[in-house]
Design goal:
This protein is an all-alpha fold. Helices cover 67% and strands 0% of the residues. It is built from 2 helices and no strands. The chain has helices at 2-9, 14-17. The longest helix has 8 residues, at 2-9. The model has no long low-confidence stretch (mean pLDDT 58).
């Protein structure tokens, strides 16, 4: 999913959601 891409692009709070 795009979530993984976003987490790789930059360290965002989304990484925690993973």
């Amino acid at each position: 999913r795009s979530e993984l891409l976003g987490c790789m692009t930059l360290p965002l709070p989304l990484a925690q959601d993973k």
